[in-house]
Amino acid sequence: GAYGAPGGDDVGRAYVVFGGDFSARVVQPGTDGDDEILGTAGVDTLLGGRGDDILRGLGGADVVYGGPGDDAIVLTGPALFRIDGGTGQDVVMLDGAGIALDLPAFLELAVVGVEAVDLTGTGDNSLFLEPRDLRALSKTSNLLLVLGDDGDEVVADFSDAGFVDLGSNNGFHDWSDGVLTLSVADEVGLFVEP
Question: Tell me, what DSSP letter sits at residue 131?
Answer without folding.
Answer: H
